[in-house]
Amino acid sequence: MAREPTFPNFRPIRLEDRDVLHNAFFSYQPETSELTFTTCFIWRTFYHFSWCWLGDTIVFLCKPLRGALHAMEPIGPAPRTEVVRTLLRWLREEKGVTSPSVERADSRLAAEVAQAPDLTVLPVREHFDYLYSTADLISLPGRKYHAKRTHIRKFLSGASYAYARLDRTLLAGCLNLADRWCRHRRCEEDMGLTEERGAVLEAIRHFEELHIEGGAILVRDRVEAFAMGELLNEQTAVIHVEKANPEMPGLYPLINQTFARECWKATQFINREEDLGDEGLRKAKMSYHPCRLVEKFRITLT
Predict the structure, then answer these.
(1) SS3 82
(2) Angstrom distance (rounded) from CA 213 to CA 184
């Protein structure tokens, strides 16, 4: 039976593609946070992801609301050099993209194409993912995590809470918290926060269909923090969503620690995605002391 859709007939990502794309991604055992179906699906309205088969490889296009059409990392057997070359030439010759690129390529793909004379590979720091030791996020050991432990103690000294594994009975509470968070942060005045809000709402509304894990902090039976994630590879979880009531100091480190302990203690690492060049977000992610930054690259035609 022929695989559908086939190149160059790209099709927008939809929920019924979940099994095919999830299986392809997980078989690849990725390190970069983009390579999950959940990421592609919840951000599809902003990034307009589409996909098709090119031989035995799945190829992706992305057309963000604020940015140029480009390709994402193809998933298939190595070496993928000819697939990348085909994609980039097609973008230039058929779609009129002046400077076609593959964005957020991982180190494996970068190594595969490194010797191609017509391809250029450059790291893009704002796309690097933050990788943490799961054990460290759970225990918060030593002086470097002193501030995190202090914030959690202050919260616990003034409130009692319950942790619950996320299920359909708590999704309305998550939606309510997402709304409250956006009112507090004035999302309507910040395009980036508006886009993020859309992705968070998609994750909540399709939580069960996406087959992801979640946890919530309840204070007086009301959801005041929640997180959602899934296995990225056999040793790493990726956190897609994390929200906490900004008027309750200490909740962010508490949901971070508790979700890691209750859901991901069997993993070695936790990937908390990229900072997109936002200095505040970069500072927050660095404050948890990543054990490594997962590099990503831009591949272009020379």
Answers:
(1) helix
(2) 26
Instruction: Say whether the peptide bond before residue 79 is cis (omega within 30 degrees of 0).
Output: yes
Q: What is the 3-state secondary structure (H, E, C) of 155-203?
A: HHHHCCCEEEECCHHHHHHHHHHHHHHHHHHCHHHCHHHHHHHHHHHHH
Which residues, 6+ apart, have CB-to-CB distance to 31 below 8 Å? 106, 107, 129, 131, 232, 233, 236, 271, 294
Architecture of the 11-128 domain: 3-Layer(aba) Sandwich (3.40)
Q: Using alpha carbons, select from 80, 27, 88, 39 the residue that is nearest to residue 61.
A: 88
Chain segment 35-78, per-residue pLDDT in tens: 999 999 999 999 999 999 999 999 999 999 889 999 999 999 99
Nearest 5°: the CA angle 71, 77, 81 is 50
The tens digit of pLDDT for each residue in 180-227 reads 999 999 999 999 999 999 999 999 999 999 999 999 999 999 999 999
- Report the run of H or E that residue 123 belongs to, with start and end: strand 119-123
Nearby residues of 115 by Cβ (< 8 Å), 6 or more positions away:
none
Q: Is 293 helix (H, G, I), strand (E, B) or coil?
A: strand
Q: Assign 211 to helix, strand or coil.
A: coil
What residue spans in the chain does CATH classification 3.40.630.30 cover?
11-128, 129-273
pTM of the model: 0.96
Topology (CATH level 3) of domain 129-273: Aminopeptidase (3.40.630)
> How do residues 3-46 score in pLDDT, each as one tens digit?
889 999 999 999 999 999 999 999 999 999 999 999 999 999 99
